[in-house]
């Protein structure tokens, strides 16, 4: 499991070039800045179609969604063939590319335990193409394909539990992070990048345009996601060893997270209560896993 780090231990050098073409307050651009800072210069970044949130100084390859896992695998094998174990093959994909369209290729890479690092900037919809719902969009969220009106209440199903789905491939490392907790995020990248085999970090990256909130509030929204238990920070090793990285004495009510975001504005009290119960129930089960140090499903 990753060790805590102090602010002083955060690398000073920037690996992303600003200004990029990101929107104001883009959580994904911040996720890229923090993750690539921690990865350092010896990286080949693989990208599939997604928001153009940043430009990285390191070499970069691009390809199709479905080929993401295979192309990343090829990069890792090529690096091994020329004896460059010092260079890491890193994916920086959106949630659409991870949870849905690129899933089968990544699942194959995970099952083969390829020596790759998949970093997902999770903005909970297909933002690049206009905020269509993805498998990562939370229940009741309004998107352009899950509208709110007489016949529709936003998305009808919950967000996929992708950390647990990848952990169930029994890979060395799966973790979640948030742009609201940069020290935790950097510590996890630092730790994971040295692991041999498949590792994944899913970073919640609020999107002011799609989630419809004031772009000045990106960090506040990210922090309240963690503090309400909606986006728990956790690490899972080999599909078994489990740790919660942020454990408040008491969770804040989910309304603190939902209210500032207009994608949830239509929700009734009953719908909010349902999300509260879902979040509390899942948190209690995560606490049990954390206490025993092993996943209890
Ligand atoms: C097979 C395929 N389906 C659909 C598209 C169209 N497309 C391009 S980017 C994108 C959205 C990507 O969403 P996500 O992976 O969540 O990244 P984000 O844009 O949110 O950063 C889609 C659907 C495509 N390029 N290829």
Distinctive features:
297 residues; eight-stranded mixed beta sheet; Rossmann fold; 15% strand; binds thiamine diphosphate; alpha/beta; two-stranded antiparallel sheet
Description:
With 297 residues, this protein is an alpha/beta fold. It has a single domain (7-292), classed as Thiamin diphosphate (ThDP)-binding fold, Pyr/PP domains (Rossmann fold, 3-Layer(aba) Sandwich), CATH 3.40.50. It has helices at residues 27-39, 68-81, 95-100, 103-111, 162-167, 182-192, 208-211, 218-227, 255-258, 269-292, and strands at residues 16-17, 43-47, 55-56, 60-62, 88-94, 117-122, 173-178, 199-204, 234-237, 241-244. The strands form two sheets. The protein has an eight-stranded mixed sheet, with helices on both faces. Strands 1-3 form a two-stranded antiparallel sheet. Helix 1 crosses helix 6 (182-192) and helix 2 (68-81) runs parallel beside helix 4. The longest helix has 24 residues, at 269-292. It starts with 15 loop residues before the first strand and ends in a 5-residue tail after the last helix. 47% of the residues are buried. The model has no long low-confidence stretch (mean pLDDT 95). It binds thiamine diphosphate (TPP). Thiamine diphosphate binds next to helix 3. Thiamine diphosphate is lined by residues 28, 49-51, 65, 94-97, 101, 123, 126-129, 134.
């Amino acid at each position: 499991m990753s060790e805590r780090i102090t602010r002083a231990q955060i690398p000073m050098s920037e690996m992303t070039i600003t200004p990029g073409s990101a929107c104001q307050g883009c959580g994904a651009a911040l996720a890229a800045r923090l993750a690539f800072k921690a990865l350092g210069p010896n990286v080949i970044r693989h990208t599939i179609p997604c928001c153009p949130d940043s430009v990285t100084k390191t070499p970069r390859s691009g390809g199709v969604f479905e080929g993401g896992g295979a192309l990343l695998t090829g990069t890792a094998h090529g690096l091994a063939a020329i004896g460059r174990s010092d260079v890491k093959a890193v994916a920086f994909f959106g949630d659409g590319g991870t949870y849905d369209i690129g899933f089968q290729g990544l699942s194959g890479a995970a099952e083969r335990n390829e020596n790759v690092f998949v970093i997902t900037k999770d903005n909970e919809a297909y933002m690049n193409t206009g905020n269509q719902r993805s498998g990562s969009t939370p229940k009741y969220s309004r998107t352009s394909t899950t509208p709110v009106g007489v016949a529709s209440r936003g998305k009808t199903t919950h967000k996929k539990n992708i950390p647990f789905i990848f952990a169930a491939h029994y890979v060395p490392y799966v973790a979640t992070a948030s742009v609201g907790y940069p020290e935790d995020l950097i510590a996890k990248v630092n730790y994971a990048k040295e692991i041999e085999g498949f590792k994944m970090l899913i970073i919640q990256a609020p999107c002011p345009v799609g989630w419809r909130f004031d772009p000045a509030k990106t960090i506040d929204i990210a922090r309240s996601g963690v503090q309400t238990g909606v986006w728990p920070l956790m690490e899972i090793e080999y599909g078994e060893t489990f740790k919660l990285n942020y454990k408040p004495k008491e969770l804040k009510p989910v309304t603190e997270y939902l209210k500032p975001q207009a994608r949830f504005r239509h929700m009734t009290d009953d719908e909010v209560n349902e999300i509260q119960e879902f979040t509390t129930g899942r948190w209690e089960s995560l606490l049990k896993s954390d206490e025993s140090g092993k996943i209890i499903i």
